[in-house]
Amino acid sequence: MTITKETIISQIEVVGEFKAIQIASDTIIKENGIEISRTRHRKVVNSDQDISNEDEEVKKIANVVWTPEIKTAWVEYKESEINNID
Amino acid sequence: MAITRLNNNSIGTYEEGTWTPSFNTNNGDANISYSSQYGTYRKIGRLVYINCRISCSITSNGTGNYLQLEGLPFTGVGDRFGGFSIGGINGCDATASVGSATMICLNMYNGLDYLRFNGSKASGGNGNFLNPTNTNFPTFIMVGGVYSTTA
User: Fold this and answer.
1) Taking the CA atoms of chain B, what radius of gyration do you get in angstroms?
2) How distant is the Cα of B88 from the closest Cα of chain A, in angstroms?
3) Choosing among B19, B41, B68, B75, which should be mutated to test the A contact, i.e. which has the most A CBs within 10 A?
4) Neighbour-count burial for B7-34, b at 16+ CB within 10 Å, e otherwise
5) What is the phi/psi pair of residue A32, to 5°?
6) Phi, psi (5° rounding) for residue B62?
7) Collapsing DSSP states into helix, strand and coil, what is residue A59?
8) What is the model's pTM?
9) A37-79 pLDDT per residue, tens
10) How far is B149 from chain A (nearest CA, A)?
């Protein structure tokens, strides 16, 4: 009997005006090559975050969608949104 | 686990999994050592139900003015939509930031993937954000709640 464990990026979504990237990672356990367990982990990365440790596919997408204009707009938006609360 | 139903009368998608909660300031420069970070979520359609627990020690509160709970599994939609309950919290004195604060709240803002701590008080309760320099980060917290995200 051989038990293996692997983690794959199962979903990458670009959402919202500021191109947040939602990442779903699945950890898959297999017994003799047959999947017996799958669990999902999620996170969100934004254009002001360090993505040096992210998957190459995420980096490629980020490099396309996170333009300088998006980065600037995101930083400005975050504080304006908070301060706009009455 | 993820399930997608295509029937128009169904609830849409269902998904459950984990996320990694953490603390930081709006400047992202707090120095925190975690002994436990655990979060779960269930997404039903556009509603996301979360639970999390953090145990940590604080080396530096950083320079930011806002204390934040970060790492949410999905971005939020809608200002101050959603509700969050703090089941337990240690090491964080809300009154040091917000005088006469009676309770600590967590606020969700449109398009953001983190929550900000707010000190609620009898009047003028909005926008009274907890400043980690005064209040200190919690060394333990349990949070549960629900918020809306994109489809």
Assistant:
1) 16
2) 24
3) B75
4) eeeeebeebebbbbbbbbbbeeebebee
5) 50, 40
6) 75, -170
7) helix
8) 0.88
9) 999 999 999 999 999 999 999 999 999 999 999 999 999 988 7
10) 10
- List the structure tokens of A13: 């979504």
ipTM (interface predicted TM): 0.88
Separation between Cα atoms, residue A21 and residue A14, nearest integer Å: 5
CA B135 – CA B67 distance, rounded (Å): 9
Separation of alpha carbons B42 and B111, rounded Å: 19
> What phi, psi does A59 have (nearest 5°)?
-60, -40
Interface-testing mutation among A40, A49, A54, A80, with chain B (most B C-beta atoms within 10 A): A40
Q: 């599994």: which residue's tokens? A: B73
